[in-house]
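Margin note: ligand = citrulline.
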Amino acid sequence: MQAITRAVSGSLARCELTHLERSPIDVPLARAQHHAYERALRSLGVRVTSLPEEPDLPDAVFVEDTAVVVDELAVLTLPGAEPRRLELASIEEALAPHRKLARITAPGTLDGGDVLQLGRSLFVGRSGRTNEEGIAQLRALLAPLDYTVTGVALQGCLHLKTAATEVADGVVLVNPSWIDAGLLGARCIEVHPSEPSAANSLRVGGALIHPAGFPRTQERLEREGLSVVPVELSELQKAEGAVTCCSLLLR
Ligand code: CIR
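Resulting structure:
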């Protein structure tokens, strides 16, 4: 497996924010945490291609939002936050050697963080970033490849994958306050109620890269026999980022 990541921008403190109050971000610490995240990926056998920092694009580290990658195709998104659209050009260049490319176009908008793939079913959050037209365009691109694309409602969080991520085949880690998990047709493990932001986990090989600081949810995952690699991401969490958003996985 390969992952595309991007170094933390020196301007991270000017990131987009939706649900959190702005709080000071320690950029050198964010960089150290991001390096540890990349090391965790490598330790799980992933080949990491780390793109250079984009000094003027605060959120460029969150590469997940710029593309939806399936085995047959990479769809460049049109991020709902307009300033983030400048992140696309370098991602297009990075993906071109690996996949045929397609794109979401205006008036459609779509953030990759809203797309949860469970086998050949893709669920897409109707969020502040992703609109019906974006979902319809993704469906039109992927239906001929035998994927289903289903829009799902969200409340209280930024992206669908803030609320739900796949942790094993047919098993999803969810925060049930933010999504009606029954819609996903998967077995659910709920985050511990005291850890609402713990539903974002990155499944790599047989393990999960999970943000440190959620011990009770981690315990629930381990009780299910899942292997958890905790990574401290406090500074990226202040920018409303977590573990899935920092990589584009090419499986
Ligand atoms: C944003 O608001 O776009 C960034 N500050 C955070 C994006 C996080 N992306 C993700 O979870 N997929």
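The radius of gyration is 17 Å.
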